[in-house]
Design goal:
seven-stranded antiparallel sheet, elongated
Length: 885
């Protein structure tokens, strides 16, 4: 018999809730207008779990699996097992131990980096405004439970599935769920007989408040929401960034090289009638030696260290690879307020219709205002509304505040970025209906009757002063009972409200620093172009051109693309135009970043190569961004750009090492196996060589980077890497073969001595050559490595030289070497490093090899566009969920 559990008293189906009145909904949920008590909310949280579609934890098993899923490694262990079962037990154990040490080394570093990154991600929090214990406060989104009463405001992401209790002109963008491009109007009235996602009385998790405000009761959280049910059926992974795609291409390239060499060596050894298992073990060990198995650990450690460095400078990175993307940006579009200016907007003065000082525009502005005063502090609305509430005489009980309180508001049409207006319908102290509208001056004046030329001249004078200006207009509204956008017409201008937002003292220096790094900074703002140009002049930035939203609208994409390089300021830009400008700028093949913090910035943030928001921004902006700034500062962004380039430069050092000395040594092994009657090195010795070498390379993320490597963006260039390998790999092999000649012809070495000598020489040349390859300058004299970089690779080389004299020598197949060998080895290493330095100097003089592409090719950029990030449905515990349309 199947037992169906009955829902608890505070569980309610969303479709059922849509058909109930708000009072009935709260009753069924065991809640009320004042919300739940904290104790009840805690109990329900234990019952229903966190409001998250999933949680990302750093799992030991997951990190370990990433280390051991290398198919070559699995084959090697399999072959070692067969060797052990057929009599080669000691060799099999040694191989297993060395593989375990190698895997453990990679695991330790990657796990430590993952834990550090998870701690940083937890700092990016999303909160909801909730009524609990009879008061309103903000709580983490993850702690919401059924029965909570939540407030929704413009720009918020709906944090759970809600039954709306009170609605004030609410519209929600539900494209994420329905695919509809137009926002859906909402009401609190009960509705029955509708589809689950077609409920005007409900707001759904992950959708965005496009307009208005509301109060709603939480019905479902986490995976029980409509969005959660959709996400549960998807298994999408985020698409690769250019950095990740480059890593994949490089790994595939080395895999092909390893496969060819391994097959060649195996065939040769079998053809020479050597034991099959020995030939297989040797061939697989060669493959492991070529494979860049430390690459994930080195990249993760580099990115993790970079993320911690940026976090110390108040920059939080939501995805590790976004740091490298930040280093690649070439154009930065940023808003003006809070970035170039202090973001502290203060009211300056009010001007009447004739340009003289007048209190009437301020009085009407206080009536048409979405901010309120709580405990003496303006809250709600936008920054301009709050500045009006803080104006002299505007507080409740003061002269203008009392006069504004005499008006009775009958309806409000909130500000939105399409209309660029806000309006109220109110009755004046005499009881006469009045429509009051305020907003962007050009838009308001266009809706006014009989605007004299002097008014526009006065407005332009305010703009040239750098003032932010709001126009106020009104008209009698007899008989009007409801307010609609079409009513904002035939107005009579009341005057202008001027606000100040002082430029940041250090903004000009930050922009100059970005430009020195090859990043063009462009302003994209909803403000007037003259104001933005004045701010640029005040901070010392050369404004080469201003393009208005109307002019942008008149250009097709080709002409807009041609205009972008010559334009510094894009003014009076709508949200749709922001997104279009970003997309067109990316057509040039340059990496584009956008810094924005408002609801109208979300789409542009999503379309940029790197979306940047601030912790004080709207939820939807922070969700769409890759990078969140705790402090809105372009100087910090410049640090982020350099950090991204530093990480990429150090990653390339490992890549160039792996494709030169690694490849050279393994090619030498392939050649030696052809003319020697014995294996030139035992499989366990090759693996030990690889372990020591990789240990030496793990400190590459700490290395210093030359200034020229930070000066311009860089990108993966496989042609450059292959060319580098074809030059420096053979140089390494030449000295390997010279070592072979010394061991056989001069020292008359036997099998054990030969293997020991080549092991010592191989580890010395492999590790020490990093000091030459790590820089294009003269090493040590003009480019000094970091202290760990100086000590660890040198220590690895010394360890290789000492091993034949330890108690492990016999077990590992080593024997002590004559003093003459070390004298010859010292000379070989010195000559080898000098030859590599000469080859490096000549290599970088060749035009096509001077740089691993300071800017990626257009095809690489286009590949990146195709691989833009997809929707991600797993959220870290501090954030609750991720939703992108």
């Amino acid at each position: 018999m199947v037992v169906v559990a009955r829902p608890a008293h505070h569980e309610l189906d969303l479709a059922e809730a849509a058909g109930l009145s708000p009072e009935e909904v709260l009753s069924r949920l065991g809640s009320g207008q004042d919300g739940l008590s904290s104790a009840e909310a805690a109990q329900r949280l234990r019952q229903f779990g966190p409001n998250a579609l999933g949680t990302h934890r750093v799992r030991v098993t997951a990190v370990l699996l990433r280390q051991v899923r290398n198919p070559i490694l699995v084959l090697l262990l399999g072959a070692a097992l067969v060797s052990g079962l057929t009599g080669g037990g000691t060799n099999a154990v040694i191989i297993a131990v060395i593989v375990a040490l190698s895997v453990g080394l990679g695991f330790f570093n990657e796990y430590r980096a993952e834990v550090a990154m998870a701690a940083l991600r937890a700092q990016i929090r999303q909160e909801a405004e909730v009524r609990r214990d009879g008061t309103t406060g903000r709580v983490p989104v993850t702690s919401l439970v059924p029965g909570d009463v939540v407030s929704l405001r413009l720009g918020a992401i709906v944090p759970a599935d809600l039954r709306l209790l009170e609605v004030d002109e609410l519209e929600c963008d539900e494209g994420l769920l329905t695919g509809e491009s137009m926002p859906a109007a909402k009401s609190a009235a009960p509705v029955t007989g509708r589809q689950p996602q077609d409920q005007p009385g409900c707001a759904f998790m992950g959708t965005i408040v496009h307009q208005g405000s509301a109060l709603g009761a939480v019905i479902a959280t986490g995976g029980r929401t409509a969005f959660g049910q959709i996400a549960a059926g998807l298994a999408e992974k985020p698409s690769q960034t250019a950095f990740e795609a480059g890593l994949s291409r490089f790994s595939r390239f080395l895999f092909v090289v390893a496969a060819v060499l391994t097959a060649f060596i195996f065939i040769i050894n079998v053809a020479l009638s050597r034991p099959l298992i020995d030939a297989l073990l040797f061939s697989l060990a060669i493959a492991v030696g070529i494979a860049p198995e430390m690459m994930p650990a080195i990249v993760t450690v580099s990115l993790s260290a970079g993320s911690k460095a940026l976090a110390a400078k108040k920059v939080l990175v939501k995805r590790l690879v976004a740091i490298e993307d930040l280093g690649n940006i070439e154009i930065l579009f940023t808003d003006k307020t809070g970035t170039l200016t202090e973001g502290l907007i203060t009211f300056q003065r009010a001007l009447g219709a004739d340009g003289s000082s007048s209190d009437r525009p301020l009085l009407l502005g206080l009536v048409c205002n979405e901010a309120a005063v709580s405990a003496g502090v303006p809250v709600g609305g936008n920054a301009l509304d709050q500045a009006l509430r803080s104006a002299p005489g505007a507080a409740p009980g003061e002269r203008l505040g009392t006069a504004a309180g005499a008006f009775q508001r009958l309806g409000i049409l909130p500000f939105d970025h399409e209309r660029q207006l806000a309006s109220v319908l109110a009755t004046d102290p005499a009881g006469q209906p009045l429509l009051i509208t305020k907003g962007a001056p050009e838009v308001v004046l266009d809706r006014c009757q009989d605007v004299p030329g002097g008014a526009r001249q006065a407005l332009e004078a305010l703009f040239r002063e750098g003032a932010r200006v709001v126009a106020v207009a009104a008209r009698p509204a007899p008989g009007m009972v409801a307010l609609a956008a079409q009513d904002e017409r035939d107005l009579t201008r009341a005057g202008f409200l001027a606000f100040a937002d002082r430029p940041k003292a250090d903004a000009g220096a930050a922009i100059a620093q970005l430009e020195r790094l090859g990043v063009q900074v462009k302003i994209i703002t909803g403000d007037n172009g003259l104001v933005a140009a004045k701010v640029c002049a005040d901070i010392g930035v050369d404004c080469t051109g201003v393009l208005s939203g109307a002019e942008v609208e008149a250009l097709d994409d080709d002409h807009l693309e041609a205009a972008i390089p010559a334009t510094t300021v894009f003014a009076r830009i709508s949200p749709e135009q922001k997104s279009r400008i970003i997309k067109v700028a990316r057509r040039t093949g340059k990496d584009v970043a956008f810094l924005g913090d408002g609801v109208n910035d979300a789409v542009a943030l999503h379309h940029a190569d790197v979306g940047i928001s601030v912790d004080s921004g709207t939820d939807v902006a922070k969700e769409a961004a890759d990078v969140v700034l705790l402090d809105k500062d372009l100087g910090v962004l410049a640090e982020g750009v350099m950090e991204g380039r530093r990480i990429f430069a150090n990653t390339m050092k490992y890549v160039l090492m792996a494709t030169s000395s690694n490849f050279g040594n393994m090619f030498s092994a392939a050649g030696a196996s052809v003319f020697l009657s014995f294996l030139p090195m035992l499989p366990s010795q090759i693996l030990l060589n690889n372990l020591l070498y990789n240990t030496g390379q793990l400190v590459i993320p700490t290395d210093h980077v030359d200034a020229e490597a930070l000066a311009r963006p860089a990108a993966w260039d496989m042609k450059f890497i292959r060319r580098f390998m074809s030059v420096f790999g053979p140089v390494s092999s030449v000295f390997d073969f010279l070592t072979f000649w010394i061991m056989l012809a001069l020292l008359h070495a036997g099998h054990t001595e030969f293997r020991t000598g080549w092991f010592v020489e191989s580890i010395a040349t492999q590790t020490l050559v990093v000091y030459v390859i790590r820089t294009r300058r003269i090493p040590f004299f003009r480019s000094r490595p970091s202290l760990p970089m100086l000590l660890v690779p040198t220590g690895a080389a010394l360890a290789g030289a000492i091993l034949p004299y330890t108690g492990l020598a016999h077990l590992l197949g080593f024997t002590p070497l004559p003093t003459a060998f070390f004298l010859l080895l010292f000379g070989l290493v010195v000559v080898y490093l000098l030859l590599v330095e000469l080859a490096k100097t000549r290599f970088y003089r060749i035009p096509q090899a001077r740089s691993p592409r300071l800017a990626a090719s257009r095809s690489q950029r286009l590949e990146r566009r195709i691989q833009r990030r997809a929707s991600r449905f797993v959220r870290h515990p501090a954030g609750g969920y991720r939703a992108r349309s």
